[in-house]
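Before the break, one more example. Copy the sequence into your notebook; we will annotate it together after we see the structure.
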Amino acid sequence: MSKRLYVGNLPPGTTAAEVRAAFSRFGEVTSVDLATDRFTGHPRDFGYVEMDEGAAAAIAGLNR
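Here is what the structure looks like once it is written out:
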């Protein structure tokens, strides 16, 4: 079963590829969705990562 994880406090300029790389150390990432401001189109400081396995390990390993 796939888990959708909230990822917050991302530094400005963080890309989906960087988030995917960080989470891929813990398991296969099926999707990365970074939020953007609807008016300016600029990235916001949060997003979502979807993983089938390794979600608990990713939370433990990346939670700061």
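Residues 4 and 14 are 19 Å apart (CA to CA). The first strand starts at residue 3 and ends at 7. Try to locate both features in your own notes.
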